[in-house]
Design goal:
Layout (H helix, E strand, L loop, with lengths): L2 H14 L6 H4 L2 E8 L4 H14 L3 E7 L8 E9 L12 E6 L2 H6 L4 E10 L6 H4 L10 H8 L2 E5 L1 H7 L4
Amino acid sequence: MSHRGDCIEKSIRGSVGTGMHTEEAKRTKNILIVGVGGQGVLLASEIISAAAMQAGLDVKKSEVHGMSQRGGVVSSHVRIGEKVYAPTIAHGQVDILMAFEQAEGLRVVDWMKPEGVAVVARTELVPAIVTSSKKFDYPHDAIERMEQKLTHVVPVEAGAIAEELGNP
């Protein structure tokens, strides 16, 4: 296995246990990835799933991408563990939230475990329904509102990082 593959395996195994026969090792980690169409939510779930499978772990995933081609909501449930039985995450059981768009992160904040970690892009992609309608307001304070509900919120300047790497 390459050095990179070894690092991936250690990272994933470290998040679900040491491989020993302990309760921690048997525990399933639940990752919820959310965003809007075109942000790479489905690609991210594929990469995470492939890395976990390469590390010898069981993976189940479920996706919602109905209006993704029109900038609509996209989400993916990824469950990783020694043995995973269902592809969807129960409400209130998300260990890790990856929000590629901050309002989408706020929308699913109640799916988090109290000790869960939310990694949230500071990206604001205001849907057309919000800009063309007086019925909806975009929550420009989404990250601050998430921080009021969760202990572990990690805001990320994803747009700036992407530009530094040569992606618009």
